[in-house]
Amino acid sequence: MTNSRIRFSREEFVPLWTALRERIIACFESTGKIIDPFGRRDFWVVDEDLGVALVEVEIMTLDLLDPPVIYALRDLLQEYPGFAITVSVVPPGGAKWPGMGISLFQGEIIDGLKRSFLPPPYRNLHYLGSRPE
Q1: DSSP labels for the chain?
Q2: Of 51, 74, 78, 116, whose CB is crowded by the most CB atoms within 10 A?
């Protein structure tokens, strides 16, 4: 999933994908959030590249949907033409929510949040320049 026709050789792709993944983790950690695959975690960045110019993120802490965080992720893509980031919301405590999230491309936010399922403080989130899914 990418909005670019840029093609990468495997030798070009792996370092770019890895660097973008590490920068996403650093972005979230700079907000005080943790990634711990064996215990409590606020987010997870999928660690398996499938040869697609996409880094998949799962968030368990809804404040990672705050516009400044999403803008920071979108802005990271300026340095990674052809890459995209998906941010999927993991429902808290076994809640039954439909799949939802945000897709980020270079300079673009596609908002697929289903706000009626989110707690009240997150129902009015708005991302400047975004478009619906």
Answers
A1: --S------HHHHHHHHHHHHHHHHHHHHTTT----TTS--SEEE-----SSSEEEEEESSGGGGSHHHHHHHHHHGGGSTT-EEEEEEPPGGG------EEEEETTEEEEE--GGGS-GGGTT---TT-EE-
A2: 74
As given in the structure block, the two tokens for residue 19 are: 């660097």
Q: For the whole prediction, is pTM greater than 0.85?
A: yes
Q: What are 44-102's pLDDT values in tens digits?
A: 999 887 878 999 999 999 999 999 999 999 999 999 999 999 999 999 887 899 999 99
Q: Give residue 1's Cα distance to chain centre.
A: 13
* Whole-number Å distance between alpha carbons of 18 and 95: 32
Q: 70: left (phi > 0), else alpha (psi -120 to 50), else beta?
A: alpha
What's the rounded Cα separation, in Å, for the pair 26 and 74?
Answer: 14
